[in-house]
């Protein structure tokens, strides 16, 4: 049971109805966020940009999103992004691994290093060290690592939001 | 920029030039058709602090609004309502909607400065028959209003009467007009309006559901945000409806005005059918 109202399109603020699909549907997350329409004017385009392919491909971003969501035990984001990750081309065994359903050691070196970096970034940012960053930079440019950090940060935000407000996972 | 856009929207009939302020959702009455479920035991009274209302009024004047309306809830549940209203009336012509039941001997002298600014009190009265009126508006409402209005008028305060029509007959309304004339309130200052089917009236199955052009948009500021018109920030089962919310942010006012104008630009031009004068 969500702790904030999930609005239907006709109950949503006039300025936020454009965030619903043509058939009037929207994700539970969007249906909650429309309670704060002013925020959406900037947040939704920001989110769309951060989660779209940029200097980093979509599959890599989705791997990060799923891993961060796993670390935060966000039921909503895992339900929403596991299928997206697969659709973006992340192999099933990699999705299983970042969800702790298969050994991380089985991941290719690039993905294994990325997961190690993400885990430190999310769980112990003060413990981030030069050696780990250097290994990450063997696989990603500095601007790509920055973009992945922003992806991880936004995912954290959504994990906390969806979990604390008990947003029901999408069907 | 915003000023010119507001002026154009008003000239095109897309919106009114009045800014509404929902002073509070708290009320000493529990009218059956209340849009906001306001009542004495309300859990969350949500009010606009006096300085917020005054600041909004000053910004409204700069932006080109022509007048203010203050409503609720019951404005005079706020301890500083009289002084706030005098201040607002010195900034822009102001009409304050009140149930007229709280004008005690202590409050009346504090209201006297209203006679020296452009401010009017619009007092609700639904029937010339005390029992009938009190059925809709609460015990002793008629007696308190009948006592208050002449005392306000004799102090030179501009008083209007608002009647919310449920199933009153023409004859009943006629007798109400005779009554308000005896108090010194003219027909021009008697507003008759239907019940809008929103809020508690919706739950009670009362009134008429307004069409998209039936209510003239007039930016309405509440503690919950800025809404399309004064009938918009309704409450059902303790939860504020946000379907006609245009902005959560109300200060600075220019931001809310900008979003409001964006909404009214997309709407058909209508007429304000919600209120008529007898």
Topology:
The complex is a heterodimer of chains A (171) and B (278).
Chain A: H1 28-33, H2 37-51, H3 58-71, H4 75-87, H5 92-98, H6 109-123, H7 130-137, H8 142-164
Chain B: H1 2-11, E1 18-24, H2 50-63, E2 67-72, H3 81-91, E3 94-98, H4 107-111, E4 119-124, H5 130-137, H6 141-154, E5 158-165, H7 170-182, E6 190-194, H8 199-203, E7 220-222, E8 225-227, E9 235-236, E10 239-240, E11 245-247, H9 253-265, E12 275-277
Parallel strand pairs in B: 1-2, 1-7, 2-3, 3-4, 4-5, 5-6
Antiparallel strand pairs in B: 6-12, 7-8, 8-11, 9-10
Helix pairs in contact in B: 1-9, 2-3
Describe the structure.
The complex is a heterodimer of chains A (171) and B (278). By secondary structure, chain A is mainly α. In chain A, 59% of the residues lie in helices and 0% in strands. The longest helix of chain A has 23 residues, at 142-164. The model of chain A has no long low-confidence stretch (mean pLDDT 97). With 278 residues, chain B is of the alpha/beta class. Chain B has helices at 2-11, 50-63, 81-91, 107-111, 130-137, 141-154, 170-182, 199-203, 253-265; strands at 18-24, 67-72, 94-98, 119-124, 158-165, 190-194, 220-222, 225-227, 235-236, 239-240, 245-247, 275-277. The N and C termini of chain B lie far apart (38 Å). At the A-B interface, α2 of A face β11 and α9 of B.
Termini separation of chain A comes to 14 Å
Unreliable stretches covering 5 or more consecutive residues of chain A: none
Low-pLDDT stretches of chain B are 271-278
Order of helices and strands of chain B: HEHEHEHEHHEHEHEEEEEHE
Structural class call of chain B reads alpha/beta
Q: Which term fits the overall shape of chain A?
A: elongated
Largest sheet of chain B: 10 strands, mixed
Count of DSSP strands of chain B: 12
Number-wise, the strands of chain A total 0
N- to C-terminal distance of chain B: 38 Å
Rg from Cα of chain B: 18 Å
Percentage beta strand of chain A? under 5%
Number of helices of chain A: 8
- In spatial order, strands of the major sheet of chain B run 11-8-7-1-2-3-4-5-6-12
Largest interface: A-B, 13 and 15 residues
